[in-house]
Amino acid sequence: MVKEDALYEQGKGKKGMNRKDRGERHGFDGGNSKKTISGRTNDQSVAGRKFSKHQSTSASQTAHVRKQVDPEMAKYFSEVSNLFESDGVDIEERSVICSNALEETRGKELELATDYILSHTMQTLLEGCDVDHLCGFLQSCAEDFPSIAMDRSGSHVAETAIKSLAKLLEDNDVYSVVEETLTILCKVVVTNPVDLMCSCYGSHVLRSLLCICKGVKIDSDFHVTKSSTVLAERLNLTASRVDRDYSHLQQGFPDLLKFLMSGMIKRTRKEIKTLQVDQFGSLVLQTALKLLAGNDEELLHAIPILLGCNKEAILEGNYIKMDIVRDVVKLMKEPAFSHLMEVILEVAPEVLYNEMFTKVFKNSLFELSSHHCGNFVIQALISHARCQDQMELIWEELGPKFAVLLEMGRSGVIASLIASSQRLHSHEHKCCQALTAAVCSANESPRFIVPRILFLDNYFFCEDKSNWNWPSGVRMHVMGSLILQAVFRYQSEYIQPYVTSITSMETDHVLEVVKDRGGARVVEAFLTSNASGKLKRRLVMKLRGHFGELSMHSSGSFTVEKCFTVGNLSLREAIVTELVAVQSELSKTKQGPYLIRKLDVDRFAAQPDQWRSKLASKQTAYDEFYATFGSGEAKPLKNEGFLADISKHSSHPKDLKEMRKEIDNHLSSGVPFLSTSGFKSKPKKADQHSRKHPETSVDYNITQVKNKNLNKRKSHAGSDNVAAVGKMTENVGWSKELDQSVSKKGKKRERKDAQLNTSKKKLKA
């Protein structure tokens, strides 16, 4: 308890110190530590101080005496530059000039590439030359490539050359010559990779070299990962990098990637403590690990070494020795290593992840969650939890700490925990209850829950929380809104307090929420949740009179569309009426034309009765669909608009979306839904025939069998039927199949009628 109190005070004291975003942040909560120019904290570890010494030594070793470019050579390249700037050269001439100019650089590549002015001309030449001269340039300067890459100007030249190689690889005929060139460069790089990895310029070049060996775009998320991308992955909004399909990648050089990665690991093993805490070295290792994702053999060899394990332990199959655990935990509080550890957890094979979870993280989750750097590692750990047993261990340590973590500003840990509970279907109800208890005491009304989470920091920073009020004009908490979006993806029985809270908000507050980007997403999440349509419309009704205003905002237009979807006929008409009033202004906005077309505003403005008729047709179509294929437990309610309670049906959302499109297409094309022509026209003929020949009972029997089969289908659970329909939709369209089926029945019926007529004539004869 004493230890936890100390951690709480430590975290609380730093909750306002958000970590600086360097474009590589892999988590939710920012946290600025006091950094020096090199990017490390002032309270540097021993390893950090060793690195500073190493860096100054390596810098003095790699610094070269810059030779002055020959005046005649400088004049020549200046003339070439002026020629290109004059735009008097066509494409074919440009390629020839670039190739000829590059031939003049032989033996002088280092001086020209590192010259501040002439380096720009070199970039132009490398972008415009053919593959032979480009590869010739790189092979000629291969020995000086590390020096060029670590130079302020030369690094741009080196990256331009690699990007040009990647572009030329679109032509398969150049594969062999490019492979030869890259092989020469990789052999030079692995002789001394540490200096290149720790250079602020060279690290970028090395990462580009790794990307081209893999066959990915150099400016892809392998090279630079946006925090929003990682955020979406951790909240289950997009597939993780490991699960994505990269079959569209261009042809790479897998053997070269393996050679480069293994060479880097081998040469840097003695300097691994330096790379663990170095900002730029960490970035190179992160890129390398991302590119190796899915290659378990290479990862099982590389990751233990990066954690500080010795080779003997790895060979024994015991990837992590207990004697390094405390060192690893301490390193996770360093900015550079915490970034690296996030990627390690993302790409680690299951066997290694399980061992890290048990040996390194168990009993240290709250300690790391309390730290301004370590909490990002815990977010990654939770987001990549493999099974419910691991979720149980996470819950034991962090479940009772929701309120403490939120007060320390570690809302990202809570968001990761909620998202993982949904992904693994574990502790879902407990997460909802714990979050409720963290922001609302047992004797308080649940109506405070949503407002307090929307203004998470504002509420927890308030000294007198019992008298906290809605802070008008304050931007809503980004992570708080994301947490609420995740909560509304739970089953309806788990989120009743949240539903009560959002539906009981005052009208002015609801409007303010919808005008905020994050708040609007919360409202949309509620409108697409499993809550009842009646409760959803209760919230939508509070926005009446403001739909026109909201539609003019890029974020509000999505909310208006969601409101229209859940509304009944009268509410939809009220929404479109408000849009008609601002139609001219709305059509000029970016999102306006789509919204006008989606809600059919033009038709309503010109022919309101026809608009209502079309809407009623859709209502009938959906009712027929759910009556035939929907679950018997989730029939459409009479007082609710169609699709107002869509989430109650057991259909898969993706299949349902396809079915909705199919229905809309049939309605717009004039083709009757569910083969109404087949159901109505054929029976009419049968009725007429039966009146002429009372003794004929074939039609009646067929209809009886058909109704019996239909009732039997309706009595079953809707999931199997909907799955079958989804499969039919994917192949040829389910409505077309029904049309053909009914048509065949009609033809059989006619043949039987003809047989009856023939037999009757014979009897009369």
Automatic annotation (TrEMBL):
InterPro entries: ARM-like, ARM-type_fold, NOP9, Pumilio_RNA-bd_rpt. The keyword Isomerase does not apply. PROSITE patterns: PUM. Pfam families: PUF_NOP9. SMART domains: Pumilio (SM00025). Residues 18-28, 684-696 have a biased composition (Basic and acidic residues). The keyword RNA-binding applies. Residues 1-67, 674-765 are annotated as: Disordered. Keywords: Repeat, RNA-binding, Translation regulation. Residues 33-45, 54-63, 698-708 have a biased composition (Polar residues). GO terms for cellular component: 90S preribosome; nucleolus; preribosome, small subunit precursor. SUPFAM superfamilies: ARM repeat. GO terms for molecular function: RNA binding. One of its GO terms (biological process) is endonucleolytic cleavage in ITS1 to separate SSU-rRNA from 5.8S rRNA and LSU-rRNA from tricistronic rRNA transcript (SSU-rRNA, 5.8S rRNA, LSU-rRNA). Pumilio repeats lie at residues 359-396, 542-577. This is Pumilio homolog 23. The lineage of its organism: Eukaryota, Viridiplantae, Streptophyta, Embryophyta, Tracheophyta.
